[in-house]
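re: ur question from yesterday

yeah so i grabbed the chain u mentioned. its 233 aa long if i counted rite. heres the sequnce exactly as i have it in my notes:
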Amino acid sequence: MNILIVEDEYLVSQRLSRLICRVSENNHWECNIRQAYSLAEAKRCLSNNPVDALFLDLNLQNDDGFKLLENQPSTLKCIVVSALSERAIEAFDYDVIDFVAKPFVEERIQKAMKKLRESFSLSSCDFLTVDVRGEKQKIPIDEICYIKASGHYSELYCLNDKTYLSEIGLNALSEALGNSILRVHKSYSVPFKQVCKLISQEGSKYLLQLKCDTTIPVSRGKAGLIRDLLKSL
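ran it thru and got these structure tokens back, copy pasting raw so excuse formatting
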């Protein structure tokens, strides 16, 4: 991975770099780390170098770090590292992988790195790995009925009537799973093969009937897209 740390405090940036390197070495991950100390420097780095992921502070010499995410390709992953924890909910609108609050410890960076690695590898996998009572369990993607946002996590509702919690947020999970998953609502994504029909309700509200005998809400902006997709079946 090519990682860019965007942090205006030199000592914080150096510590974050050391922790990322240590976590990567311990897990036998290869990564190349660059550092930028301002919004302008970060933009130049993104323009001139390959970058797969950002570790982004939000207060960059009084500039808003979120500005860096505007007009960037969807393949660019981002982990926010900031003391402005009140902006964690806002981060969902920018499809960030994780929000790490300052001050941080190595264990928290390790958790963020794990989410980052998983977001890159999901599109080539046939299953998701979840934690069930302290043990790792593989859930086949084909068994997922729909996915619901749960704060920074995602709830996987499966065909066996079981529900699992993934540590990866809905935005990152939906993007990583690619064309096999359809985002139908701010809080819901569904495998396309589970879609049955679109149900119109009063007040311009919509529901999506799934083949697993469940309905989930559909945002008004997604209704037209779903209607067109159903016509093409």
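noticed a couple things. Residues 128 and 139 are 5 Å apart (CA to CA). also The first strand starts at residue 2 and ends at 6.
anyway ttyl
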